[in-house]
Model the fold of this input.
Amino acid sequence: MAHEIGFSLEGGESWAETLAMATMMDEGGVDTLWLACHLFQREPIARATAILGATKRLKVALMAMSPFSMHPVYIAMAAATLDEMFPGRVTLCLGVGAPRDLDAAGIAAEKPLPVMRETVDLVRALLSGETVAFAGRHFNVSGRALETGQRAVPIILAASREKMLHLAGSHADGLLISAATSVPFIESCFRHVADGEAEAGQRGKRIGLVYCAIEDEAEKAYDGLRRKMAFILRGMHHRQNIVLGGATLDQQALAKAYADSDWAAVDRLVTDEVVRRHAIAGTPEEAAQRIGDYEAVGLDQLVISGVKTAAELRHLLDHMNIGR
Done:
């Protein structure tokens, strides 16, 4: 395949399945394993340490570490320590965090843009290895440096809204876009990122999470993604994504059906058209075309989401001809 391929894990996978999948990715030519940091799920730093130790070449990204649930100094410490142990195999992704997770933990995430700007600047300063004197509105560091010294860890920013996208282009080393996004929405994101990149005078890496299901019968592939995509697309912050994608989806009805565990209604609301426009799904031929669509829009790394088991991963690796 022409572009880098990554996979993401959400944190609900058992350790046995995680290790089996990481080994398979390491041997199968996958570039990066993105480990989500969702509150109440399995913790990504511990998993990253074990995975890097058990593999030879696979890179690991901490995704997306939130300054609302962890101080930027600790985030920088974790990334730097991992990179000291496994040089060149660590990426740090920063993000606000899932709103429902933060709410469940009683964490307020008000005015995230200035907080994220300070976080990116502070983490970058610490990773430079220099003594840092940082006086911000939200975070302060008084003349301290990381004991690891300078570490060349890329900083990626998870973003979807205009000002945060601009920040990704102007301050970070790249952008990560959420799963279940349509190709037209990704195009619109890249326009805002480009404005920030022009300000910084350099182009960052562009990475997109994409759900993927490939089956000989297209309907089976669609069925495998409906509820996974419903979990994401029920959020009202995905409204513009849905509008640009061109499919019709009643988000309020979907949110209620999901909350009520009315899976028949969920499956009915997330139509084949919604799945087609917001994921890589269908027969091998259809999936290949959709992969091409996502790559053509300018993604440097396509990160496959929604895989839960080693058997599912093997199935996708075989159908996508990765590592062959």
